[in-house]
Amino acid sequence: MSVTLQTQADCDIHLGMCPHCVAAADTSTRLMWRNIESKHYLCCDHHGVFWLVGENDYPAWRYEPAELHAQNKTKIGSMQRVEPAHSRASAGLSRPPPR
Q1: Where do the domains of the chain lie?
Q2: Could you tell me if residue 25 is left (phi over 0), alpha (psi between -120 and 50 degrees) or otherwise beta?
Q3: Half-sphere exposure of 82 (CA within 13 A, CB side)
Q4: Which residues is 93 bridged to in the sheet?
Q5: What is the model's pLDDT at position 52?
Q6: From residue 42, how far is each of 12, 98 by CA, in Å?
C-alpha cells in the first residue's frame, strides 16, 4: 500500500512524525505509508526519510501485488532511515482534536 496519510499534525502520535519537519515546525507535510512485504513504513518524501512503523500489524499487505512492494522497496532504498519524532510539544502542537 502506498497511500497518503493525513498531515503530520493529524497523524497518530504513536506512528511518529518526520524529525526534519518537526525541527522546521512544518506539520503540513503529508506522510506516505508504504509496505514492503510484512513491514510497514512511514515516509516523508519531502525530506527523503523513512522509519519502520511495525511488522505484520496490518494484514492488507498480503493482498498487495509483489510489484507494488518492489516499487516501495526501490523508493525507500533511495531514502535515509531515521528515528521518528514522537513529541507534539516539540513540534509546537497541541493535543489532536477528538474524533
Answers
A1: 2-90
A2: left
A3: 21
A4: none
A5: 93
A6: 12, 23
Cell of 40: 510497514
CA 3 centroid distance within chain: 10
* Residue whose entry in the numeric block shows the C-alpha cell 525541527: 23
Confidence of residue 55 (pLDDT cuts 50, 70, 90): very high
Report DSSP letters for the chain, one per residue. -EEEEEETTTS-TTT-B-HHHHHTT---PEEEEEEETTEEEEEETTTTEEEEEEESSSGGGGGS-HHHHHHHHHHHHTSEE-PPB--TGGGT--PPPP-
Question: Model pTM?
Answer: 0.75
pLDDT tens digits for range 70-93: 999 999 999 999 998 875 555 455
* Sign of the dihedral through C-alpha 21, 25, 27, 28: negative
